[in-house]
Amino acid sequence: MDKPVIGVTMGDPAGIGPEICAKALSASAVQAVANCVVIGDRRGLRHGLKISKIEGIEINSIKKIDEAVFKPGTINVLDLENADPGKIKTGQVSKAAGKAAFEYIEKATQLAKNGEIDAIATAPINKEAVHKAGYKFDGHTEILASYTKTKDYAMMFVSDKLWVMLVTTHLPLKDVSRKLNKKNILKTIKLAHETLTKLRGRKPKIGVAGLNPHAGESGIFGKEEIKIIKPAVEEAKKLGIDVKGPVSPDAIFYLANAGMYDIVIAMYHDQGLIPLKLLSFNRSVNVTVGLPIVRTSVDHGTGFDIAGKGWANPQSLIEAIQVAAHFSKTR
């Protein structure tokens, strides 16, 4: 069977994106499962190879996907020529870097929608830089949802230890409670059910975390569990979904790691990401579910503090490409 073609966006060119792209696409673990094309700037990738001290790799700069040459020792770059090293300084937030990073996502989305690539794996962007460039999105997820006109979507994180899906994403903690409602919790439960059923060929066991300590303790520590979370769970059960909750947030991740649940529905970003990263940092992958295209991403940021030093770990990008390749075959 032919290997899927994965478009790997280079991320913010001032961060560790070029370095981890160079390392990941040179890895046999990636070459074994996918044909990859970096969507970025050849100068950035060349710099990534240099600081990584990777030799013997040829950069094939292309303008169209069908110009790619998939063979050992070659990295294909769909070169947008938009990351001028004279205007972008490594490790610094800039409008130029934010604009370049956004354009990589934009191009990758277009290619995926047109069927020219089978999936997208994204290196990290810097949200401040993207905002400086004039794009008012909270992150990759919202950009992709907008460009694919997707209304029902969610962030799912997968690892060897734990799978998590988020009801809310990039919000100040003080705003989480008022953004939660029965509708968006039920939507997330349904997305988890549909996604895992498709991937695994069976109904998943879903655990839904409470919001408050001890899942509210019958309303003593908060009413969200009684008013919105439990009604959403009960509605999901009526649809034939195998779901339990609200479960105390301080217990549910332990139970999932022990095998009681296939996936946990977390109410907010850090509730789900702290246990996930504690168990599987650099080995977890962000998947945007609900899109008409496959998109995976690393589980970390742009690493401005280590950019340009050759220290960046490519493992999360390697995992993201592997997951993208696998998921692309299930669509």
Automatic annotation (TrEMBL):
<protein>
    <recommendedName>
        <fullName>4-hydroxythreonine-4-phosphate dehydrogenase</fullName>
        <ecNumber>1.1.1.262</ecNumber>
    </recommendedName>
</protein>
<dbReference type="GO" id="GO:0005737">
    <property type="term" value="C:cytoplasm"/>
</dbReference>
<keyword id="KW-0479">Metal-binding</keyword>
<keyword id="KW-0521">NADP</keyword>
<dbReference type="InterPro" id="IPR037510">
    <property type="entry name" value="PdxA"/>
</dbReference>
<dbReference type="GO" id="GO:0051287">
    <property type="term" value="F:NAD binding"/>
</dbReference>
<feature type="binding site">
    <location>
        <position position="295"/>
    </location>
    <ligand>
        <name>substrate</name>
    </ligand>
</feature>
<comment type="pathway">
    <text>Cofactor biosynthesis; pyridoxine 5'-phosphate biosynthesis; pyridoxine 5'-phosphate from D-erythrose 4-phosphate: step 4/5.</text>
</comment>
<dbReference type="GO" id="GO:0042823">
    <property type="term" value="P:pyridoxal phosphate biosynthetic process"/>
</dbReference>
<comment type="function">
    <text>Catalyzes the NAD(P)-dependent oxidation of 4-(phosphooxy)-L-threonine (HTP) into 2-amino-3-oxo-4-(phosphooxy)butyric acid which spontaneously decarboxylates to form 3-amino-2-oxopropyl phosphate (AHAP).</text>
</comment>
<keyword id="KW-0520">NAD</keyword>
<comment type="subunit">
    <text>Homodimer.</text>
</comment>
<keyword id="KW-0664">Pyridoxine biosynthesis</keyword>
<feature type="binding site">
    <location>
        <position position="277"/>
    </location>
    <ligand>
        <name>substrate</name>
    </ligand>
</feature>
<comment type="similarity">
    <text>Belongs to the PdxA family. PdxA2 subfamily.</text>
</comment>
<keyword id="KW-0963">Cytoplasm</keyword>
<dbReference type="Pfam" id="PF04166">
    <property type="entry name" value="PdxA"/>
</dbReference>
<dbReference type="InterPro" id="IPR005255">
    <property type="entry name" value="PdxA_fam"/>
</dbReference>
<feature type="binding site">
    <location>
        <position position="140"/>
    </location>
    <ligand>
        <name>substrate</name>
    </ligand>
</feature>
<dbReference type="GO" id="GO:0050570">
    <property type="term" value="F:4-hydroxythreonine-4-phosphate dehydrogenase activity"/>
</dbReference>
<dbReference type="GO" id="GO:0008615">
    <property type="term" value="P:pyridoxine biosynthetic process"/>
</dbReference>
<feature type="binding site">
    <location>
        <position position="170"/>
    </location>
    <ligand>
        <name>a divalent metal cation</name>
    </ligand>
</feature>
<feature type="binding site">
    <location>
        <position position="141"/>
    </location>
    <ligand>
        <name>substrate</name>
    </ligand>
</feature>
<feature type="binding site">
    <location>
        <position position="269"/>
    </location>
    <ligand>
        <name>a divalent metal cation</name>
    </ligand>
</feature>
<feature type="binding site">
    <location>
        <position position="286"/>
    </location>
    <ligand>
        <name>substrate</name>
    </ligand>
</feature>
<dbReference type="GO" id="GO:0046872">
    <property type="term" value="F:metal ion binding"/>
</dbReference>
<keyword id="KW-0560">Oxidoreductase</keyword>
<feature type="binding site">
    <location>
        <position position="214"/>
    </location>
    <ligand>
        <name>a divalent metal cation</name>
    </ligand>
</feature>
